[in-house]
Amino acid sequence: MVIKMTMFNEVKVIDDYSVKGFKAAGIHSGIRKNPNKKDLAMIYCEKKCNTAALFTTNKVKAAPITVSMANLADNRAQAVIVNSGNANACTPNGHEIARAMCELTAKSLEIDVQDVVVASTGVIGQELSVAPFVNGIPALVDSLSEIGFSDAANAIMTTDTFPKQSAVEFEIDGKTCRVAGFAKGSGMINPNMATMLAFIMTDVSISPELLKETLSIVNEDTFNAVSVDGDTSTNDMVCVMSSGLAGNTEIIGDGDDCQIFLRTLYTVMLNLAREIARDGEGATKLVGCIVSGAPNDSSAKSIAKSVVSSSLVKAALGAADANWGRILCAMGYAEGEFDVNQAEVAIGSVEKSITVCKNGTGVPFSEEEAYALLSESEIRIYIDLHSGEGHATAWGCDLTAEYVRINADYRS
Amino acid sequence: MVIKMTMFNEVKVIDDYSVKGFKAAGIHSGIRKNPNKKDLAMIYCEKKCNTAALFTTNKVKAAPITVSMANLADNRAQAVIVNSGNANACTPNGHEIARAMCELTAKSLEIDVQDVVVASTGVIGQELSVAPFVNGIPALVDSLSEIGFSDAANAIMTTDTFPKQSAVEFEIDGKTCRVAGFAKGSGMINPNMATMLAFIMTDVSISPELLKETLSIVNEDTFNAVSVDGDTSTNDMVCVMSSGLAGNTEIIGDGDDCQIFLRTLYTVMLNLAREIARDGEGATKLVGCIVSGAPNDSSAKSIAKSVVSSSLVKAALGAADANWGRILCAMGYAEGEFDVNQAEVAIGSVEKSITVCKNGTGVPFSEEEAYALLSESEIRIYIDLHSGEGHATAWGCDLTAEYVRINADYRS
Question: ipTM value of the model?
Fold first, then answer.
């Protein structure tokens, strides 16, 4: 089955992150030294969920990634356990710890150990002990609540400066449904087929196959369209769980219901992806690069990602400098065949952009106006190649000295 | 003909950068505002040279690149004209200016305009006027000298903090020969098939076909093995000119003479490449990543380049932090198939390294010793994949807040 998203209407974003059947919690368990920093999160659903997930394409996969891949072989899950402060990657006891996290969770919740998804984020290569989980996981279970998602979103943060949550309410089959999720990002962000950590919950009833396919489709234009620093992490995971408690007839193929679900999943994942880019390590600005008129979608995407990933473009945007020559340079080394001599480039804020380049060469513009627009907290770069119908958008952030400071100090 | 470099003996590096038949000069012509900063360089040979060059693979090619490509169609050149302070890229009058630079040079030197190579480096997208060249080029010709190479090396610098020169003396066919060159680097450095700007001169007599082939072979392991910031520039060029004045019998195929020439060209280009990495924008350390035991050379190269290009690895090295997990992460997203579970990693200085990872997981090491070793100005990362005979080395630098400062301010 090949499904394409065709619905692009506005959807109703809400700020209530609860979803029928789900509870969550986030606590400090002692993995992190700072007692004020939560480091352990749980999601629990009162029934088994159809569950789809995408994982990092990095050849170095953290232990929780391989354990979750095995546990999700049946596309079913009922709980998620996540720690921050330690990636549980590249250590001798990694699998033992990841499995212990699942076992303690299953035991405390009285569910099947196969139905637990496990994830970790933090420093790579430091051994994690089972101790914080032995008391932490039962304590988490005790604090599970229908309004616990903010605590959970807080507990998975590493160098993130704010938690990232998004929720949408909509109707399918006469039933009110929700999709809600939370994510962490900040560094080592250059998702490729998967992402940092993101957990999405819905009460929509949808078949496991379709859930997987919709996740893949939406992921391509959301998390896979984000880059903070070009480093694809060892721990990336995005996981969608559907409780089916909304009461709609199970969605099993393309059609209006499927399109509504796709559209809402897209909205939630795009919001989370953009928040991840906005909160990139050291970032002061969210940058969106919108490419149109490309020979095809894939060259449009490669150009958009190349521009938002260029250190030189990012450093210029950090200084609100309309150095469009660096944008053309980054377009020029993107993959795909296209003619840069047709390129038109406009840059600015969300509200207003000014054309800086036509036919691949510069045109006069007001440096003062460009500086003012690029000083906003959200930047747009519009590129029209005038060579076809291909289009794509990528999201990134500016590069500041703070990025270097954060990453020089991270382990200490 | 497929030639492989087989000779790996030490060669005699000298600090006299003159080569029989060649003269050079560097002056301030007014392209840059600062009168103390040279901005125009010339190389001239008393006879026509067999000449080979490689150019940027960026789809956006600066005007001097396309003009030089055309002029070098016959593999012959007698002079090079280069300006800094302006890339002469992405402007409406670019080709006109590049051709005018060639014409003024040809007229002043009384040579054929087809025998002039032209190059530019600096800001992209700002119109260059012909004015500085009208007086500058005749003045350059007047100041040409056999010891003018340092002035020329100075005149092509942009954000470079020191000029980059290298020379080797050797014997072929009983004749004393030389290869000498100079280069500029610093930012937008991620050569792909070609490089920043590098000009190499030799008095060895060698056929144009063989000169081209040796340049390509050596380039792969020198300039193409360097990354400062992942941005492949629009103006990259490496050019080798051979005057043939050493008096040796022309080298036309593989054999001892060809191997000696390969080896010396390798030494000069590797020295220049390493100096470019060492002087990367904001860099405080030269980083060499030596990969061995890979299934093949191409996966070794992709791993080595991935490690030296990772922003997170580079930021950690800037802080002398032995955060080897980031090295494994960067290996994991490199192209090629290999088993990271076999990987052994050692890090340190040129003199001493310590093992931090075996079989893909961490081993105990002294953080204090690692900190001391990584505080040196030259860092080595050794990776052995224990999976074959493939090996490669890549060169890079650390990432500091200074990189961001330089690139936020560059255009202003």
Answer: 0.74
